[in-house]
Amino acid sequence: MSLFQLFLVFVYVGMFTIGGGLVAITLMQQELVGRGLITAERFYNMVAISESTPGPIGINMATYIGYEMYGIPGGIIATFGTVLPSLVVIIVIARYFGKFQDKPLVKAAFFGLRAGTTGMIAVAAFQVILVAVLSLDSFSRTGRWQDIADWRAFAFFCIIFVLQVKIDWHPVFFIILGAVFGIIFL
Predict the structure, then answer these.
(1) Considering the entire predicted model, what is its pTM?
(2) What is 64-106 written as a DSSP string?
(3) DSSP class of 132
(4) Which of 59, 105, 120, 148 is least surrounded by Cβ atoms within 10 Å, i.e. has the fewest?
(5) For residues 182 and 168, is the Cβ–Cβ distance under 8 A?
(6) Residues of the chain with pLDDT under 50
(7) Domain boundaries along the sequence of the chain
């Protein structure tokens, strides 16, 4: 893949990322892992690192992937490719949205966009769970049901899920807790 092709992939990702960075992850995964440019495990390690760093995850992922593939120029090109469509669209929307926001067709379109992007975010979350909590590749190698999940990762996932729902702590706390858990138990 050339640097220009990398730019086009991330323009595509940026163009169809409606709903936030988790949707971008789904598109990046389809484009990069699907083409065999990076492995699924490497991709989800990049997701974990990008989630743990400040800033929007879609931009963090684009910068990280571009950097991994082509160094600093790749990081800049991938980031610019991701941001460019949003920049153009937001300029157009800022100019005309006030005139059209109350139209029934516009309201209906946004209703559908919310539902569709929620589904895409759910797919991204499910794919991360498959890699982070379930060990389907271990199961496929051994055929033993005991190997289908890493019980430590699953237990920690459940604990964090419950804590996040019940306690209003800052997400940084959970990120740090996850890193400490990984260092201690793996």
Answers:
(1) 0.59
(2) HHHHHHHHHHHHHHHHHHHHHHHHHHHHHHHHHHHHHTTSHHH
(3) H
(4) 105
(5) no
(6) none
(7) 3-102
